[in-house]
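I have a small job for you when you get a moment. Can you supply me with one protein entry, sequence and fold together? It will help me judge whether the discrete encoding reads sensibly. Write everything out right here, beneath this request:
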Amino acid sequence: MIAAGQQRRKFLHRFCGLGITIAPMIFLQGKSRAQQDRPMTNPDGKAADESAPFPPGSRKAALEENEKDIKKKVEKLFQLATELKDEVDKTDSAKVLSVAMVKKAEEIEKLAKDIKSRAKG
């Protein structure tokens, strides 16, 4: 029979591994979307950028800024996931589950969701 502490440890190990695995995929997905940025046409034949309320150059600048922001957040996500993994390896979570580890896991989850929403646009 597996003790509750061992189940927590397994969960945290898997969560860290998942975060480290997903972070690059989210980053690459956002990057590929930015590269696919091409003008779409409206039913009236005008380019989407022409009918937009903002200048065409500002859209590209906004996308570039978004890409930079995503890169920073992915780096932060990777750093947090690595720190959490190290913390899990150091502690004996079979006896005690650190509140700091849970908070770090929640922070990782929040950051991953933010990256995902930014990558979607």
Observations:
- The helical segments are 4-35, 48-51, 56-90, 99-120.
- The CA atoms of residues 38 and 48 lie 10 Å apart.
